[in-house]
Design a protein that fits this description.
By secondary structure, this protein is mainly alpha-helical. 71% of the residues lie in helices and 0% in strands.
Length: 42
C-alpha cells in the first residue's frame, strides 16, 4: 500500500490538473487573442 503522503500528493496533483477543465479546453480551442471586432469595433 502507498504511504499516506504519496496518496495525498497524488490526490492534490490530480485535483490541480482537473480544476478549470472547461476554461483550459476553451483557451486551447478558441485561443486568447482578441478578435479584430473586439479590438477595433465594427
Amino acid at each position: 500500500m502507498a504511504s499516506k503522503t504519496t496518496r495525498t500528493e497524488t490526490i492534490r496533483r490530480r485535483k490541480r490538473t482537473t480544476s478549470g477543465k472547461k476554461t483550459k479546453a476553451a483557451k486551447r480551442n478558441k485561443g486568447t487573442t482578441k478578435s479584430q471586432k473586439e479590438l477595433f469595433g465594427d
